[in-house]
Amino acid sequence: RFKSQKAMKKLLRRLGMAYNADANAFTDFRSTVYTLSAPTKGRAETMHSAAGLFGDSGVSTAPREDLAEDEFAGDDEVSEIEGLQATTDDNTQLVLELLHQMAFKALLKQEDIDKERGAILSELKDRNSISQRAAMEFYRFNHNDTVLPRRFPIGKEEQVKRFSSEDLRRFYKRHYYPANMCLYVAGDVDPADFEKKIQAVFGKEQAAPADGSAGVEPVEEDRKVEPVLWPRRGAKIVHHDLIESLDPAPAIIRTSPGVNVVSVPAAQPPSKEHGSSNKFHVLSHSLITDFSVSFCAKGNLQTFATLSDMRESVLDSLVGMILEFRVNERRLRSNDPIFNGIGWTYSSSARDGCSMNSFSISSQPRHWKAALEIGLQEAARMAEHGVTEAELSQAVTTLVNHFAQQATLKNSLESSVWMRRIMECVQAGDQVMNAEKKFEILAEISSRLTPKELSVRARELFNAVTSYVTNDQCKAFICMPDNSPDMQDFSHDLFLTIVERGLKDPNPPESLQVPERLLDESHLNELVDQMKPAIVSRRVDEEGGTGVVVLKLSNGIRVAYRTNDSRPKEFRVRISAAGGRVLEDEQRQGQAVAASALWVNGGCGGYAAEVVSRFASMWGLSYDAACNSEELHFDMLVQVSSFCCSLFPPSLMLGQGNC
Predict the structure, then answer these.
(1) What is the C-alpha to C-alpha distance for residues 97 and 380, in angstroms, rounded to an integer?
(2) Which of 292, 345, 414, 454 could form a disulfide with 48 if both were Cys (CB 3.0 to 4.6 A apart)?
(3) Residues 255 and 247 sit within 8 Å (Cβ to Cβ)
(4) pLDDT tens by residue, 442-476
(5) With 0-12 CB in 10 A as exposed, 13-18 as middle and 19+ as buried, what is 323?
(6) What's the predicted TM-score (pTM) here?
């Protein structure tokens, strides 16, 4: 229907959409995804970009001016779409038709392919960074028993240069057919009306591939079950290292006839250096500046579809929070932390076809030995001693408040966020849940957990790391600078020696006591009685229509605020003080930056920084400080759930006379 890119871009601009931002596509190991982000009616000057589906978020600003009309003079296909949309019409039908054209009616002209070829080759060059190369090397090492290292989505340069329109048409006719696709919709639409439009637009396409091959025939039961039970399309990734225990598909997922299974012999491991082997690999490069190691153990793909799955997910989340508490406490107690980061993740990826239990440590090269030992001490401590009752209580408070806020914000999330969540759930076989119901269940599960239960789970999760020396399923992937004088003595034997030393005889965890309040209410009331704060002037910006209220307090502080209901039960505060780096002289150089760091990490209310940090995590408070040439800022994000209302004394609540 749109016989040139010019015609399609014309339509997109009239809808307030930006080409390559609100209309785009991406490919991963198992699928290609086309995305459209459009206003349901009229034209939007700004809108949430579909770039959120790539894992980012942002706003795409559509140009206000139309393309010059003479640029399209005499263009028949542009004339055909003129008048299709008035600014008040419903856009949803047209957007579905546009997506239908992309999915089933692509022209794939040679001249258009040649134009796009340059963009892909340019992207290949842009991706040739050290971080991308490290990621690809990680896949070659950890997934060398699969097809994944041979199928990076960007493709190979020689193939990109060679593909013709005929090649793409053959692929298009073989794989682009309804039974091999899923359609996802998220936004401000009427479901019943949208279903009718979907049926009218997409229902006319034949189920089988256009090239006459059998393909995957749709099964009648597919249309009668919940989305979480839909058969997953695309090639199934077989991990030969797990082949003896690999469940072909989670019990809740049916495997339909004709679904491809990609199974290849194990690939050759990456090039060996520094004693690299099948379970130990080092990547060194001059562009790498820090030392890092990831201990990884693969497992079967996991689902999140039953109460048992939810309970295990809660246990894993709490274990991760408590480790983060301990690591942050170590960092804040040190003037010069030995490590850059110590982290643990346990994730299940339908994209990779497996779950991954990963423990990572990073540091400056000069500290690599001490950082490796400290990080493994934390892993061993978690595995051997588990968690304390105080840590469990603090982590439960943190988790419950987090999900309470998520439930509150369920209608404030961008459509791209909902789209990504739904797609991930369908592809992984997870249950899509109502945020409020999910919060209720998770809160109930959390309230019944004991330190013993959590300690047992922690031992299960960290056993892969603590048994690294003898466990063939756990691999170590290391990145380090090339020819660094601080790492000249690095070797496999030395690495194993430090690993064994770090895992030996870990100390039991300490219980950090966190108060209910950082400032006692009676002390706060004494200050109020003493200082007698009051508002001496108040002005509302009625002329500008911004709704900004400007206040002046009796001590001279000026305040500006505006109410905004787009993020319920959440507010932000910034305190800004004149006095940035321009006020420094030679004797005081660096003091402003040091002051901003002390503002964040110096503690408050008589409590140390690690206590304040734990308190903030528990009650959903985020804070930071920054310094520029002219001023210092302190920023705070406060999430006001029903669980933290007791933190704010009545004298501080909105509507009271005191500030």
Answers:
(1) 57
(2) 414
(3) no
(4) 999 999 999 999 999 999 999 999 999 998 889 99
(5) buried
(6) 0.81
